[in-house]
Structures are given as structure tokens and as C-alpha cells.
Amino acid sequence: MSDIRRGICVGSIVLKDNKVLFVRQARGHPLEGQWSIPWGTVEEDEYPEDAVIRETKEESNVDVKVEGLVGIQNLPEKGWIGIVFLCSPLSDNLKPDGFEVDKVAYLSIEDIKSFEEPIEPWCKWLAERILKGDYSVIPPRINNPYKPLIGFL
Prior knowledge:
seven-stranded mixed beta sheet
């Protein structure tokens, strides 16, 4: 039997005024100096949609509402997956946490194309697709046999 460590990461595409929320990863982070969407791991005692709300708040100080599931991505670390949610901002007090993230900004497609700092390639690709309208969203559903738990079906 294989001893593969498995993990679930969540990322938020926070859309506001045709811009996507990005955070710059701080010194010491594996993506140091790169801009990415807010990301993090799902803790043992939480659901992915709760983790994405928590991670977005922790990294950017933005409260969000989950609008739906955008997709699932196999990650380079074998056995790990990323779940991406479309979110809308409920607050707008951008502030990096100063630990994992040292800058926060909303970027338009024009900003992304002309940006002089490095953007993590997958996050760049994803944000460009979202901003071009090349995506679909599976909305949260509570009318399922596990209600009141949310399903994206």
C-alpha cells in the first residue's frame, strides 16, 4: 500500500468590478515574491467552503461570500488537489497579513497582462479565464439528502 500524503487546498477567485483579488507571497513562503489568488489548506475540522472564507480573510482581510464552485485542479504534489471557488467580497479593507502575504491588490486583465512582478502561472491562467468569461460556476445547493450541508451539484 502506498504512503501518499493527501491534502486539499482551496483558492478563491474574488471578483470585484471586473478585477480579481491577488496576494503577493511574503519572504519565506514557497512562492515568495509571486502574486497568486488567496490559497490555503483545509483544516481537519472544516469544510472546503469554510476554509476558503477563512483563508481569504487571513491573507487579504477581505470577508467573502462563496458564490459557487469553479473547479478542481490536481496539484503538482502527488495526491493533493485544489478546489477553486468563485467569491464575492463583503468587505473591502485590503490588508496583507504580514506573515504569508505582504501585498494585496485587485487586478484587471489589463493589469495582469502588463504586470511587472511575477504572477504564479496557474493563478494567472485561471484569473485570465475568469475575466474573459471562460468559466462556469456550480452554485451551492442545500436541497440535498445531507442538508443543511452544502453540496455543489
